[in-house]
Amino acid sequence: MTSSRETVLNRIRAALKDVPASERPEDVAVDRSYEHVDHAPERERLERFIERVREYKAKVKVTRVEGLAAAIAASCAARNVSRLVVPADLPEGWAPAGVTLIAEPGLSNDELEHSDGVLTACALGISQTGTVVLDSGPGQGRRAISLVPDYHLCVTFQEQVVGLVPEAVVKLQSAAESPDRPITFISGPSATSDIELNRVEGVHGPRTLEVIVVTALDVE
């Protein structure tokens, strides 16, 4: 009986059948005439990011840097968070008062699942798609901590928001070249549909995503 893996590989072989054995990837020109840089003003780019994050049914809170600690504490209080997963290098001042921090590394999946949520930084925000990107960099921890807990509270700074996906890809190159830094693109809470097209949330990641945008601009 042919496995799914063999079925896929056979289709790939059939599709490549007419490719000369001597042909190299660089021999085939790839059309890269798409936009590489978003020239929109920073305010417009940030407002578009916030709008599209919300369109994905994620929550967004906007604050200034001096109000970040209070914003994190308020978000945790609103959800009655008492046990919060955090990366080992959580930035100073982010820890909400009255909440037990469960710090990485070394947490089991069971410990992650029975927490009330996770707090992380991010690598980038993408205005074009309303996407938050984690690359296992500072303040983010390992990939599992942003996938297993049911609630993800993610902090994104104004200067981290780029306009287009190609801009994000360029900025993520060093992480992509590292075998120890998996990259996660997050566009809203985890969601899928069953065979009857009923939306089901929280199957492959957090049921609730909340993004705190830190900016000096007057946006909502």
TrEMBL record:
<protein>
    <submittedName>
        <fullName>Lactate utilization protein C</fullName>
    </submittedName>
</protein>
<dbReference type="InterPro" id="IPR037171">
    <property type="entry name" value="NagB/RpiA_transferase-like"/>
</dbReference>
<dbReference type="Pfam" id="PF02589">
    <property type="entry name" value="LUD_dom"/>
</dbReference>
<dbReference type="InterPro" id="IPR024185">
    <property type="entry name" value="FTHF_cligase-like_sf"/>
</dbReference>
<feature type="domain" description="LUD">
    <location>
        <begin position="109"/>
        <end position="214"/>
    </location>
</feature>
<dbReference type="InterPro" id="IPR003741">
    <property type="entry name" value="LUD_dom"/>
</dbReference>
